[in-house]
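Q: I'm building a small set of examples for a reading group on sequence design. Run inverse folding on the following structure and report the sequence directly after it, with nothing in between.
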């Protein structure tokens, strides 16, 4: 299948994508190299050397012209950030086998310095593989600004997250930020992607087997970012998660009643959610978060299996509501 080409301008350049406002610097390749390090990089370079590492190069990245260091760090001085996805043993195994075959490590991690240690927001699998192999050093692009560590996750698209992984990653980031930089929720739209993931993340923390995929479309209609700092908004997020869990309890009870009546379908949870969800019949905007979930929870608890026909469930079709 032929690849679809992007529309171009009169000059022949691809048109900018919707929502993209970035205008790259005019720096040429020769201008990216730094013959003299700026003060913020110089202090960081001395810290790297004091920590047992080595500075291999100083340069500017080509889009924004931000100064960076290319460094070699002791592997025992580097940790994964606590808010990224859990390490996959299968992924690490593939990496170690590839490294064993090629006898090379060619993909630097990104790191930020924190105290006398280094945190990587996107290199957990590579770091783990190197540590398993017994490597003493890891190559890293060292970023001076700590806040960039949270933004790096938006660039890491090598493996698509499932909903549970992404939501848990978001809530770990949320808690970490709430205890450090503490920005407003609305300022973290890029890093969090959508407010529904924040609420789902807190819900998954409390109930790992939650069928979040059944509730995500509803949350996307009614959830929104708070105009408050994360530390102040955190209790509200935990409360919203409890509202979702109360609804999940009501849905599970309705599913159990249907099964007692002889209904046996992998779509029962999706059927119940669709049955009690009023949004599909509403015109205009959705009701407030609490009002909607209160209505749906009440309907789920009051669902009478005697009024449900087998063809109603069969028509619901679609994918079963799994626990991501």
């Amino acid at each position: 299948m032929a690849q679809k080409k992007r529309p171009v301008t009169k000059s022949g350049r691809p048109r900018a994508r919707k929502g993209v406002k970035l205008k790259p610097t005019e720096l040429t390749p020769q201008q990216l190299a730094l013959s003299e390090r700026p003060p913020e990089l110089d202090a960081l370079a001395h810290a790297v050397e004091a920590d047992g590492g080595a500075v291999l190069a100083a340069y500017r990245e080509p889009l924004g012209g931000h100064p960076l260091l290319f460094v070699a760090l002791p592997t025992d001085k580097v940790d994964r950030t606590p808010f990224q996805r859990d390490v996959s043993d299968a992924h690490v195994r593939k990496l170690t086998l590839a490294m064993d075959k090629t006898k090379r490590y060619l993909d630097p991690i990104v790191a930020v310095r924190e105290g006398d240690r280094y945190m990587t927001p996107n290199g957990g699998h590579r770091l783990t593989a190197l540590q398993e192999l017994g490597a003493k050093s890891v190559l890293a692009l060292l970023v001076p600004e700590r806040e960039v560590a949270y933004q790096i996750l938006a660039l890491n698209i090598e493996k698509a997250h499932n909903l549970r992984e992404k939501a848990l990653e978001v809530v770990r980031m949320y808690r970490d930020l709430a205890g450090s930089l503490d920005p407003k929720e609305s300022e973290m739209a890029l890093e969090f992607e959508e407010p529904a993931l924040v609420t789902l993340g807190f819900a998954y923390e409390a109930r790992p087997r939650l069928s979040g995929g059944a509730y995500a479309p509803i949350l996307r209609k009614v959830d929104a970012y708070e105009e408050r700092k994360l530390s102040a908004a955190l209790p509200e997020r935990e409360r919203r998660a409890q509202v979702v869990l109360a609804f999940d309890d009501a849905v599970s009870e309705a599913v159990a009643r249907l099964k007692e009546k002889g209904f046996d379908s992998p779509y029962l949870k999706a059927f119940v959610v669709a049955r009690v969800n009023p949004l599909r019949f509403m015109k205009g905007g959705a009701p407030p978060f609490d009002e909607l979930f209160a209505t749906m929870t009440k309907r789920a608890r009051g669902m009478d299996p005697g009024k449900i026909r087998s063809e109603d469930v069969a028509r619901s079709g679609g994918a079963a509501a799994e626990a991501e």
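Residues 160-316 form one domain.
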